[in-house]
Amino acid sequence: MVITKEHWLPSEEELTVEEVKIGTPALRAGSFQYGKYCEDVNNEFMLCRLEEKDPRKCLGQGKEVTACALKFFRLVKKHCQEEFHQYANCIDKSSVDLNPR
Fold first, then answer.
1. pLDDT tens digits, residue range 48-64?
2. Which PANTHER family does this one have (predicted)?
3. Are 25 and 96 spatial neighbours (Cβ–Cβ below 8 Å)?
4. Closest Cα partner for 71 from 22, 23, 25, 24?
5. Band of pLDDT at residue 101, cut at 50, 70 and 90
6. In angstroms, rounded to a whole number, what is the distance separating the alpha carbons of residues 96 and 78?
7. What's the whole-number mean pLDDT along residues 33-37?
8. Torsion angles phi and psi, residue 96, rounded to 5
9. Rounded to whole angstroms, how far apart are CA atoms 95 and 100?
10. Interatomic CA distance for residues 40 and 16, integer angstroms
11. Contact by Cβ (8 Å): 28, 97
12. SS3 string of the chain?
């Protein structure tokens, strides 16, 4: 796709969100629970991407997905940080492909 003057590009401010700073083992450890916790916002985002066929139109839903992930992992940290860390460490150390088994 060639970008011309008629194309709207989002500003840096519109694209900037707080990142979910978490490693792969922890993401794998929380993937099932995160998927259920944020299912609705994730589905809305994917539906928007499918229907609009233009990711620029789904920036709001994308920000909601990130906000939900941040909220989920903050709740995990608040309520079960030690157990979660042990599980993520177990996944990291006992599986070459980081699969929870």
1. 999 998 889 999 999 99
2. NADH DEHYDROGENASE [UBIQUINONE] 1 ALPHA SUBCOMPLEX SUBUNIT 8 (PTHR13344:SF0), NADH-UBIQUINONE OXIDOREDUCTASE (PTHR13344)
3. no
4. 22
5. low
6. 29
7. 97
8. -65, -35
9. 8
10. 22
11. no
12. CCCCCCCCCCCHHHHCCCCCCCCHHHHHHHHHHHHHHCHHHHHHHHHHHHHHCCHHHHHHHHHHHHHHHHHHHHHHHHHHHHHHHHHHHHHHHHCCCCCCC
Rg (CA), the chain: 17
**pLDDT the model gives residue 1:** 58
Q: How many residues make up the chain in this entry?
A: 101
Q: Which amino acid is at 89?
A: N
What is the dihedral angle through the alpha carbons of 45, 47, 53, 57, rounded to the nearest 10 degrees? Answer: -40
Could you give the CA distance from residue 28 to residue 94 in angstroms, rounded to a whole number? 13
Return the pLDDT at 18: 93
CB 4, CB 77: distance < 8 Å = no
Residue 14 is predicted with a pLDDT of 87
